[in-house]
Amino acid sequence: MRHTFTGLLAVAGLVLAPAGPAHAAAPDAGLSAAAVDAYLEEAVESTGLPGLSVVVTHGETVVHAAGYGHGSDGEPITEHTPMRIASMSKAFTAMAVMTLVDDGRISLDEPVAAQLPEFRMADERTGRITVRQLLNQTSGLSDTTVDVDAAQSTTSLSDYVATLADGELAAEPGSRWAYCNVNYDLAARVVEVASGQRFADYLADDVFAPLGMTDSAVSDRLVHPAEGYNSLYGAWVSRPELPAFLNGNGAGGVITTAADMGKWLVSQSGEGTQLVTPESLRSMHTAPDGQNYAMGWGEQTVDGVEMITHGGNLFTYTASAAVVPDTGYGFAVMANSAALHDDTFDVLRGLLALSDGRSPEIPGGDRQLVELVLGLLALGGVGLAVLGVVRARRWAVRRAGSPRWRIGLRLVPALLPVLVLAGYPDLVSFLMNGRRVTWAQLTYFAAPLTITVVVAAAAGVATVVTRLVRLAPVA
Q1: Which residues of the chain are in CATH 3.40.710.10 domains?
Q2: Could you report the per-residue pLDDT of 281-333, keeping only the tens digit for each?
Q3: Is 240 exposed, middle or buried (0-12, 13-18, 19+ CB in 10 A)?
Q4: Roughly how many angstroms between the first and final C-alpha of the chain, as a whole number?
Q5: Which regions span the lipid bilayer (predicted)?
Q6: DSSP H stretches of helix in 295-403
Q7: Model confidence over 60-72: pLDDT tens digits?
Q8: Backbone dihedral angles phi then psi of residue 201, each to the nearest 5 degrees
Q9: Most buried of 50, 335, 414, 421, CB within 10 angstroms?
Q10: What is the CATH topology of the domain spanning 1-364?
């Protein structure tokens, strides 16, 4: 789900299996810190990532936690470097909800509207959405039927909920799965109302603090990671993050470290400090019948290994995390970069192989290959534009006297890139199953693709305009 073009297509990792404190014995090969470190050193070298922060756990033990590379501020990445984890935040939001469920202050199966009176939408079906459906992403909410741009421009969760008033549902609540950040921002607001605290404060007091995650927080106001990077035809460019996830939201606002993620993975494996009952933890890891997404986690089988996993993609940071219930291993890989190909899952897959006693494939080359091809296409577009302009007079002479409709047909191929550019965000949104994508977002991780499309469109326009100008006096 998260390989080439994952920035466009990734939703969340997908995995599901009941979690519990009991684990099967680790493979005979086991895992040592030295083996993990050697693999990661090679992976960072082969992928060319500017910075990587990684933790591997097994049961209650942190096998290895370290950082590699550097941040945009020039500081070396360590296990204590703040990293944005984007949609991996959803598991933390689900945990906050479940602590309140265990306390009897939130009910999973009562309507959200009954527990959050301010939640109103134009669609009467909204009144049937439950908290469980928010967490399972089966509420019927969709990027295509709510004003996502207005919602993301708000500075509080209460204001966020208010922007949904004119929205509608794309499906009957509980009838189908659709990934939508609105679900988890609503869940975060439910936490605020039930607890009487700001979401960021509740997460700090009742999730991070009990686990000893002292360097974790929601939003930039509390923790300040360095700017991340985008890959531009193979070169890393430092850029400020887009503001959509920089406030205290529940869909993607957590900033944490590898050291802190180690404590989180141990707890998610059913070991160490537990914030909820075993039944509640199991619910967080168990998808509804016919689905494969639970509560901030999904189920996925990779190389024959069943695990629960989730990915995170912002616009200058990417991340992947997984827990293997059968062996008790946990992994988190966080990068201060984003590109058309997300290497964090590839690195995690290598760690999974190591934990299973197999030789890992060294990731690398996919990003460079994709962007090399796009770069060559962009250069080709420039070359065709120059050729089209230079040969425009010859083209006009040959077409002189032809019917206008035939001349128009001859010009259509050159204008096809213009049509693609005109519908570019909508086309990408369609490829992402309706996820809302904006022009601003497409200038970040997708910059090489965007530039190539723009160059091709400009080449087409230049060719057509020059041909028409040359055709006029000839005609």
Answers
A1: 1-364
A2: 999 999 998 899 999 999 999 999 999 999 999 899 999 999 999 999 999 99
A3: exposed
A4: 55
A5: 369-390, 411-432, 444-469
A6: 344-355, 366-390, 392-399
A7: 999 999 999 999 9
A8: -70, -40
A9: 335
A10: Beta-lactamase (3.40.710)
